[in-house]
Write a structure and sequence with these properties.
Length: 213
């Protein structure tokens, strides 16, 4: 990756270190669907060339989630995007690698998961399966403030998610509740803002992909 790619990745990383709502949450909420692609890899090629060739030949594996009934696209055209060398190194000796992409628009067009340059959404990045399951679950979440039930009966899926072992799911649940005027639920489950318990819970819900793991 050249100098311009490195600068871009740095800028993206800094931008995503801002307070709620996170870029991952915003992108997931704006998406119409979540699709898993499979990219073919030629192991004898140089990593950067192998990656450039791979993203020109994506195969649709599955439509994982959608916000309205729809069929999976038969094909997807990916625009070139940079990935850190440490992430590409994890694809060595593989014949294929899976990638998660959000889809929006009519017809559906792919959009990038935030932090994609850092391996987020790439199968070889640790936490890929947790990210996938968290996004699939979050696509089913709906606004509940108008439900005619007691306060303790509201936001049950998000309450469970806040206590999950899946850090991505915890992250998305906290974002969702705050965005929907239910920050008090996060306080109830995670502890008051600034408390030791809250700090520990927030630390386990940080989205920070690391290809070196």
């Amino acid at each position: 990756m050249g100098d311009s790619g490195g600068v871009l990745s740095f800028v993206v990383f800094i931008a995503l270190a801002q307070p709620l709502p996170s870029a991952l949450y915003r992108a997931s909420q704006e998406a119409s669907a979540l699709v898993e692609l499979e990219l073919p890899l030629i192991t004898t090629e140089r990593r950067d060339l192998r990656w450039q060739r791979a993203i020109k030949q994506p195969k649709v594996k599955a439509m994982l989630a959608s916000r309205a009934p729809m069929d999976a696209p038969e094909s997807v055209e990916l625009a070139p995007f940079e990935v850190m060398r440490s992430c590409l190194r994890k694809t060595d000796h593989r014949l294929t690698v899976k990638v998660l992409v959000f889809m929006t628009g009519t017809p559906l067009e792919p959009t990038w998961l935030p932090q994609m340059s850092f391996g987020l959404g790439l199968e070889t990045t640790p936490g890929y399966e947790q990210l996938k399951s968290a996004l699939v679950e979050s696509f089913d979440w709906v606004e509940e403030r108008m439900r005619a039930v007691g306060a303790q009966q509201l936001w049950q899926p998000q309450r469970r998610a806040l206590a999950s072992d899946n850090g991505y799911l915890r992250h998305l649940a906290a974002e969702f509740l705050i965005a929907h005027g239910a920050a008090d639920v996060v306080d109830e489950v995670w502890g008051a803002p600034g408390s030791e318990t809250r700090t520990k819970n927030e630390a386990t819900a940080r989205v920070a992909p690391d290809c070196k793991g």
